[in-house]
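Private note to self, pasted from the team thread so I don't lose it. Backbone tokens:
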């Protein structure tokens, strides 16, 4: 009985820490996507490296979509039903 309760507390602790780490990673990913899009636009529109700028813009959009998808998964709730 006590061991089951301790195991439950431990799993809740791990799920909470995982959720915090996931929030930080999603925040960092959003910042990286925004910076990538901005740098890509600057490179493309200034004609410094148009092809590289277009690629960076595309990669930034793809990164933003992936981060948005990961934010909607609610992964800690998959660990702790």
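Design output:
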């Amino acid at each position: 009985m006590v061991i089951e309760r301790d195991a439950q507390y431990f799993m809740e602790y791990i799920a909470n820490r995982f959720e915090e780490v996931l929030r930080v990673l999603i925040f960092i990913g959003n910042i990286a996507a925004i910076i990538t899009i901005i740098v890509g636009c600057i490179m493309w529109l200034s004609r410094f490296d148009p092809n590289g700028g277009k690629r960076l813009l595309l990669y930034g959009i793809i990164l933003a979509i992936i981060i948005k998808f990961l934010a909607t998964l609610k992964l800690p709730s998959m660990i702790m039903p």
